[in-house]
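To: structure subgroup
Subject: Chain for Friday's discussion

All,

I'm putting the inputs and outputs inline so they're searchable in the archive.
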Amino acid sequence: MSVLRQRIEEFVASLIAEETYDEDEEIWVFADGRACAVCTSSARRIAREFGGDVFGYLSKMNPAAEIGAARSVAATTSRSSQAVGSWTTGLFT
């Protein structure tokens, strides 16, 4: 087994070992309380462990993101719910 593969497997095992189920919120969380199912929570942990940057969609927790920034500006200037709704629907069709 390569050194990198072993390191990845150990990292994944450590993540699994710290996951707990929050019965009040009905979600799986890491030890820091962040939801396991939130992509950026997991991606940031991976980037810290192995190096790199996390790029994602614009949000309060990710203000430097470029993805969605233009749509966010357009949505806030005219009929935001309709603009955002049609844009997100288009992502999955």
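Points worth raising on Friday:
The helical segments are 3-18, 39-50, 69-77, 80-91.
The CA atoms of residues 84 and 90 lie 10 Å apart.

D.
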